[in-house]
Write a structure and sequence with these properties.
FAD/NAD(P)-binding domain; about 425 residues; single chain; alpha/beta; eight-stranded mixed beta sheet
């Protein structure tokens, strides 16, 4: 069966509303107080806060602003649900998890209030989130997660047994699940455009097509920033490159694992069919190690379906049939529906599966979204700027000296296909034994 629509495109569906554009060519200043590397959610959030405080700031990006994950994600916004799996294992006690979950909840509130305050038209729908249990054992483990999210992240979470899940999702695929009411979805490219417009209005200077090539610290602790278009000097540098971190910052590259995430969009669906897939217009994910995530488009007419179709990096047209089958596994009623768009973007994971901000070797950073980029990168960029300005009322929980690495890892992701095979095997066992 041919699954591709006659107008199929290898580009993000979101780009139908806004496509990242290069900035007008900018002569690089010789000196600037703060340079931000990376014009995504984190970089622009930091730059906006700095500029509004009267600090001159220059943002550098190797491509067009927003060309990376900020306009390619699934557009799901959670308040601490995906911040780190260690929260919900014995590796971290409830008391240890509390400050992280509190700040993750603040991250959701930050995005929600920013969109409302600045009137960013980006298809914001605060309709909650359903996490499907891949196996009975996964469902049983959710009770602790629900209690912790409610206690520390005010998430409005509750368990949904398998017999009742049809009220949440038009599928019998899962063994029950949990709902998080304090969650939302949006159009990520339009949210990015909103941030970009605010930053430009505040006076932020953005140099697109300007790749960072090296950084070196001067005797006076300032930084010499070399780029593909020239050199400049700055007092502070913020690294906000996330899943696109390159060789110019090897200390960060060996602390981040970029993983390609793949997404498809269907053609417009009959209204009754679309509404039946997500009766409450929630967003969805599951507890499989080979993760899938999905939701309706902001207008409620299409299914947007993403996941780790392959571990590694490949042509999104090659992964489209895999995602299509994952979609049919959950929604057999979509058989015969055509795909109009297929695309990919890089997600960055830290080795401890936690978001991070802080200072390493003199460089500020906001990195490792771990799949929660809309909320966490916006928030950590904002918090990094407040730290530089000396305006932080308290230390952000994600601002820690620990940013783990491994002596066997230098940034090469050759092992990802092997990791994917292992995860698929574990998922297979969990489903059958759980």
């Amino acid at each position: 069966m041919d699954i591709f629509h006659k107008d199929f495109k290898l580009k993000p569906f979101w780009w139908e509303d806004y496509t990242p554009q290069p900035m007008p060519e900018l002569a690089l200043p010789r000196d600037v107080p703060v340079a931000v590397v990376g014009a995504g959610y984190a970089g622009l959030s930091a730059a906006l806060e700095l500029a509004r405080a009267g600090t001159e700031v220059l943002v550098l990006d190797a491509a067009e602003p927003g060309f990376g994950a900020s306009t390619r994600s699934g557009g799901m916004v959670s308040g601490g649900v995906n911040v780190g799996k260690r929260y919900f294992t014995r590796a971290m006690s409830d008391a240890e998890a509390a400050p992280f979950l509190n700040d993750a909840a603040d991250a959701f509130g930050h995005v929600e209030s920013l969109i409302a305050r600045e009137k960013i038209d980006c298809g914001w729908h605060k309709k909650g989130y359903f996490l499907g249990a891949w196996s009975k054992s996964h469902y049983d483990a959710m009770a602790k997660k629900v209690a912790l999210l409610n206690d520390q992240a005010q998430s409005g979470s509750y368990l949904v047994p398998q017999a009742a899940q049809r009220a949440e999702i038009g599928s019998d695929y899962y063994r029950g699940g949990m709902v998080v009411e304090r969650a939302a979805h949006l159009q990520p490219a339009l949210y990015f455009k909103g941030l970009l417009d605010l930053a430009l209005k505040a006076g932020v200077k953005i140099a697109s097509k300007t790749e960072l090539t090296s950084l070196s610290q001067n005797a006076d602790q300032s930084w010499a920033v070399k780029t593909s278009r020239g050199e400049l000097r700055t007092r502070d540098v913020i690294i906000a490159t996330n899943g696109y971190t390159g060789n110019a910052t090897p200390g960060f590259k060996r602390r981040l694992v970029p993983i390609g995430s793949y997404i498809i969009a269907t053609e417009e669906l009959p209204p009754d069919l679309a509404a039946s897939l997500s009766p409450k217009n929630r967003s969805f994910a599951d507890t499989r190690r080979v993760l899938t995530y999905y939701r309706l488009s902001p207008d409620g007419r299409r299914m947007i379906f993403g996941g780790r179709a392959k571990f590694g990096f490949t042509d999104p047209k090659e992964t489209a049939p895999l995602l299509y089958q994952f979609m049919l596994d959950r929604y057999p009623q979509l058989k015969g529906v055509k795909i109009t768009h297929s695309w990919t973007g890089n997600v960055a994971f830290a080795l401890d599966e936690m978001p991070h901000m802080g200072k390493l070797d003199g460089l500020h950073y906001a990195l490792a979204c771990n799949g929660s980029g809309v909320a966490m990168m916006s928030y950590l960029g904002h918090q990094t700027a407040r730290k530089i300005l000396g305006r932080s009322n308290s230390i952000c929980a994600f601002d820690r000296p620990e940013f783990p690495t491994n002596p066997l890892y230098s940034g090469s992701t050759w092992f990802l296909p092997l990791l994917g095979a292992y995860f698929r095997s574990r998922d297979w066992l969990d489903r059958r034994l759980g």
